[in-house]
Amino acid sequence: METCSDKSYLCRVQESIPKLLETLPLARHASEISVRIESQRNLLLTAPTGTGKSSFLPWLLHNNSARIAVLQPRRIAALSLANFLARALKQETGATVGYNFRFDSKQSASTRILFQTYGSFLQQCLRGGAKNFDWIIFDEFHERRTEMDLLLSWLLTWQSIAPSEAPHIAVLSAELNRQSLESLMGVTCLRIESPGFPVQVLHQDPKPSERIDAQVLRAIRTLQGNQVWNTTLVFLPGKSEIQNCYNTLDEAFGKAHDRPELLRLFGGQEIVEQTQIFADTQSPRIIFTTNIAETSLTIPQVSAVIDSGLERSTDYDHARKIPVLRLGRIAMQNAVQRTGRAGRTRAGACIRLWSERDEQVLPREIIPEILRSKIHSAMLVRAALAQKINTNAKNIAWPTPPLAQVETQAQQELLELDLLESSGTITALGLQVLDIPMQTLELARMLALHQAPPQLLLACCAWLDGSQDFAKDSINLLSIAQDLVDGSRGVPREVALQFKRLQEWATRKQHNGSRSYSQSNADVVSALLEAFPAALATVSESGKAYRLSDSLSIILDASKTGKSSAILAFQLLRSGSGNVQQISRCVFVPVSEALLHKGVQAQEHWQLLWRSGQERFTGLCIKMLGDLEVERKDVAPQDAPPHARKILLEQTTQAWAEKMGREDLSHLWLSDSVKTLLAKMKWAAKHFPEFELPTWTAEDFELIQDEFTAGIFLQRDLNDSRFRKIVEDYFGTHMLNWLHRTLPDTLLLPSGRIAHYSYSEPEAGPIEISARVADFFGVQGKHTIAEGRIEVRYDLLAPNRRTVQKTWDLTGFWQNTYPEVRKELRGRYPRHPWPEDPMHFEKV
Known about the structure:
Layout: H1 7-15, H2 19-22, H3 30-39, E1 43-46, H4 53-62, E2 68-72, H5 75-88, E3 97-101, E4 104-106, E5 113-117, H6 118-126, E6 135-138, H7 146-161, E7 168-173, H8 178-185, E8 190-191, E9 199-203, H9 212-225, E10 231-235, H10 239-253, E11 261-265, H11 271-277, E12 285-289, E13 302-307, E14 310-317, E15 322-329, H12 332-340, E16 348-352, H13 356-359, H14 376-388, H15 404-416, H16 428-435, H17 441-448, H18 455-466, E17 475-476, H19 477-485, H20 493-508, H21 521-531, E18 536-539, E19 545-547, E20 553-555, E21 566-574, E22 582-591, H22 593-596, E23 604-611, E24 616-625, E25 628-635, H23 642-662, H24 672-687, H25 698-709, H26 720-731, H27 736-742, E26 746-748, E27 754-758, E28 768-772, E29 783-785, E30 790-797, E31 803-807, H28 810-828
Parallel strand pairs: 1-7, 1-8, 2-5, 2-6, 3-5, 6-7, 9-16, 10-12, 10-13, 11-12, 13-16, 15-21, 17-22, 20-22, 28-30
Antiparallel strand pairs: 3-4, 14-15, 18-19, 18-21, 19-20, 21-22, 23-24, 24-25, 26-27, 27-28, 29-30, 30-31
């Protein structure tokens, strides 16, 4: 790339800015940015949302004849930005400015600014395409996706090995951890301050038991009443919530003359529907969207944002080796980005559907994906990229390293799968896997090992790899895969395109010497079972749930699965947190008994035997020769062989359930403090539905009981401390501080005394606050807790701590009942002060 250092160059830059880009706040800093570009190899830039980072900087770099790759986390943003910049240059998209991603591309030999998703650019790098660019721009880096970290670390390593060959790097975001990136990139961050347009932030507390669609409607009415709703973005966690809100507002507005236009925006959407959203309009409209609109999109006329504060993301459970979808709170970085959508082109407002107090407990920064995801694919890609620059994968250091044990575990599994060598070099099979157009490593390896995978298997792979948001209920994967093979309508665009791509790959790809599958469903299930052994779940005794390892339960009636004794479970959506998990939705594949036990012939039977007096279970081994019992003996569980101990551990839950069916043992663990804790959690679930807390149904307690007794042989180990920990894990340990703050145990009164709250079950009676009558002197009116959602009844005590009166309103008590109570108490307790006007009494 040519360099210019004289002032005339900076003047030419300022004078050549296209008119459409001149309106961007970043254009005012063109000279400052140009000086930084000329004085250092890489660029680290942070500027507020709406300043034009994603479009102005690519133009500025290209203005010096450079070839630019602009990386975006989402395809819709890449497409929108490419079209905008092409329009600014008064050209068709595909000329100087183009785009390229997984299922679409528009570029030519003259293209110098290419917008791409991180995923598509990563695939291009694996084919050696990174050498075609002078600058690589990492946009929205604050999201810290694994592919972002991987590409940045690889390019920085390449720069250190071959500085004349490697491209320059620019890292951009509105929110960045500047210090760590400055150290990593060896540059000083350029901070551009721009006042932008003011956005008023309001907090709307949810009402008790108020659904998310009702909260959104209430917020919309607020904006409508204040005439701040030209275009309103409503951020929701997924497609199901988008559809619910759409239906509710569609019904609420009916055929009103001022009815706004209702639109939806999410990943995998049809292009025609997305195009409507970017059309200029002066009419009110409401756009229901996921976090796809959180960054890099300039939607016209946005004057307001409604933020649910929720997102659906995928975490990897390293202990159980399964990915789990999580519905949870966003970080403040997300909230800032969402708020900024309303201040890009005009002043606006943002209504956050949570309280200011709740905001204090939100995480400040987004947790890097590498710390909460499966890193096997990333490690395999890192090995392939290392090969491109003739170095070892270990020389490419992660910006945020994963946990050491997680990396070691992934390394070992890749070795066992024959994808990596012990030196860290990628194998031939590993390269084949990366050549398959799949994001899921296990699926790609499964296809790489077979010569002619059937259409149904390809369709299963397309669904599992192409969609993250299936439906409100659990779905049979074989059924929807067959619909895809049959060409049925209603299949998401991403899934249909992925299926077509896999069909094209299967047609041209040859796997010499590898196995092939027939077209039968059984062989498709067998292939998936071999690829995903950790996804196997077996039916519970009740037939209303399936259990993965470590008591992870899937609430799914066996009648929906054809009464299969086992399923393969994918796309798990969890409704709990901590060590105990309840899966409320999944995509499943029924596994037949014959396939499950194919080739297995057990000759030993192990079961638990109760020893009275010792108050414990012991192991019983029964050896069979055909139908003939040849040996029976007691074996202590700790002395049993590993496979037998595992069997005995799995039987403990059912064994304790049978014993508890004969006798009540609850006194062992249901202490008063545990009962109070459970009551608090039930009140919280009832009055804070937006948090989707456990509702403590019979199924919840069945899961708790199963986890509580799992792996326990001694009765003395069933104690209240163990039960409390499991209950807290099920509720979510990260919510405990909030729970005890929202539903406190005590209250400091004006008298300096402490009042105590007593919690019964919500259906059993109200929450009460207890103290002596004299301790409440100076207190008036009603009393509420839980952000004002729960009214508390006063329990007024005599000096001997016995109840004198219960009331909801102290003011009414002082005025109407207290005079009579005062006469009685003065006679019984003459040494205590009993003022005539307790509402204004102050203790001396």
